[in-house]
Amino acid sequence: MSKATVVANPNIAFVKYWGKIDETLNLPANPSLSMNLAALTTVTTVEFRPGLRVDAVTIDDRPAVGESFDRVVAHLGRVRSLAGFSARACVVSRNDFPAGTGLASSASAFAALSLAATRAAGLDLDERALSRLARLGSGSACRSVPAGFSLWEGDSDGTSFARQVAGRGHWDLVDVVAIVAYEHKRVGSHSGHGLASTSPLHEARLAAVPGWLKAILRGIRDRDLSAIGPCMEADALAMHGVMMTSVPSLLYWTPATVSVLQAVRSWREEGLRVYFSLDAGPNVHCLCESADALEIEQRLRNLAGVQDVLVSGVGDGVRPVAYHLF
Ligand code: DP6
Question: Which pTM does this prediction carry?
């Protein structure tokens, strides 16, 4: 047994994963598609130590407690059963972006943990097996395993994983993220999924997804932002419609969120090619081509309520790094 340090990027979904058909296995109610974000990283080191009595987990320099700790330990348990040993592990993980603000920290967290823990356990999983394993930790994490743009399909444990539909060099898309809040969300996506089916809009969204997915896949193939954008916005709004109308209702938006959505639409009317998306949080992802990224960043920085702006191109898949965190 040894120690491994890896890096993973979170992803932004153009077609969202919202609702599950199996909560234990994280099998999604619908296929989803995303782009990895190069500028945001989670770096994780795992070392199995035979002398340890319990797993020790540090996230962003603090000991993990409660649900975060339990989810990491459950994931280490999956790796232990694959490897056939019971040694406990020391896990140190750091994000260079704010966790819990709709920037998908669980995606990069579980993609990184899956690779670091399997490597430290002496296992060498192929991309598909690694993506399946990451899915068991957090559904969206399976899409952070392949590089570039990933499609997650499949409705059983064996078939449900993400695969690359285009590499990172295929297209210079940029995600310019308007941060309007840093607070931790009250209801995270992990607990929110279970509410999807209580919304009268859930089935309607699921019926619309195949059409959006088809158009977005074609748009990625043809590098055609105007083909992707309207479908991406429609699905983000549909997902938030489901969230808002579930029981209990989830409302992630703040007034600043709405200001950014309206600004993006008015900039588009002026001719700027930019489209929005949102995850389970108030921050707004503005997708554009690299030639327009600086202009959009500057415009966002000048909007009232925008506290910061992150700019990211297309990211790699999960990968080992040469150094260790501890
Ligand atoms: C809104 O992957 O965080 O970001 O599988 O329960 O860990 P669990 O959920 P998670 O859900 C992500 C939801 C989303 C949309 C998306 O990324 O597709």
Answer: 0.96
